[in-house]
Specification:
By secondary structure, chain A is mainly alpha-helical. Chain A has one domain: lambda repressor-like DNA-binding domains (434 Repressor (Amino-terminal Domain), Orthogonal Bundle), CATH 1.10.260. Chain A contains six helices and two strands, in the order βαααααβα. Chain A is globular and about 35 Å long. In chain B, helix 3 packs antiparallel against helix 4. Chain B is elongated. Classes of the chains: A mainly alpha, B mainly alpha. At the A-B interface, helix 3 of A face loops of B.
Chain lengths: 76, 154
């Protein structure tokens, strides 16, 4: 998918663990893992808002658009 | 008293067990079909089945196998329902198999091999069931896709 979730990068910058973030945002660890691993098909505004609040960042810090070609190169 | 539809000790779990009864009795009837038909012919047609005996067996054997397949698929669907996973692509595929089996039985009865007025009616009923099952299969497939999308929306 051309939308890349940079959650792990922001989490590393903020030095916050997945368990702690999941607790703060109010989602399960399994769902956070889906989000982190780019397996999610959509994200609710409420979840995005909670993530931004917990990580003190902007939505653009978490989401990135990459051309389909770049995505495939990244995978290789 | 509240009747549980799905889950443990529910209607679907009872139906799943009932499928085993149908499967075993169906299998027994299928194996004993030549003798049952012979007995039926002697009692109800006064032993005048003659050449129709083979023709009727030719229709009944495939129909019985299709019916057993349908019950087997239904049982598998009920297992999935009891496990809390009714809307899956696997279930959609199983309903499609049921639809195919119903269509085959319908066509067999419509082919005019069985010398009975009821046979074409039965054939039409099975074709109708087949069409309904095909529609249901598509609905389950769409539901499975919606469910997956919902599950992957965080």
């Amino acid at each position: 998918m051309p939308i890349i979730v940079n959650l792990d990068v922001v989490m590393a910058q903020r030095k916050i663990s997945a368990t702690q973030l999941a607790e703060e945002v109010g989602i399960t660890l399994a769902n956070l893992s889906i989000l982190k691993n780019n397996k999610a098909k959509a994200i609710r505004f409420s979840t995005l808002e909670a993530l931004c609040r917990a990580l003190h960042c902007q939505p653009a810090d978490l989401l990135e658009y990459a051309e389909e070609k770049d995505c495939q190169e990244g995978k290789q | 008293m509240k009747l549980n539809i799905t889950g443990k000790s529910s209607l679907s779990s009872f139906l799943e067990k009932l499928c085993w009864v149908f499967l075993l009795s169906g299998l027994t009837i299928t194996v004993a079909l030549p003798w049952i038909l012979d007995y039926y012919g002697r009692i109800f047609w006064h032993g005048r089945l003659g050449t129709d005996y083979v023709r009727i067996l030719f229709v009944l054997y495939p129909s019985a196998l299709m019916a057993l397949t349908v019950i087997w698929q239904l049982r598998k669907i009920l297992v999935n329902v009891n496990q809390g996973n009714p809307f899956s692509l696997e279930n959609a595929r199983r309903v499609k198999i049921i639809s195919f089996c119903c269509m085959m039985v319908g066509l067999l009865f419509l082919a005019g091999i069985v010398p009975s007025l009821l046979a074409p009616m039965l054939g039409l009923a099975f074709l109708f069931l087949s069409a309904l099952s095909l529609l249901l299969s598509e609905l389950v497939k769409q539901a499975a896709i919606y469910k997956e999308e919902n599950d992957l929306t965080i």
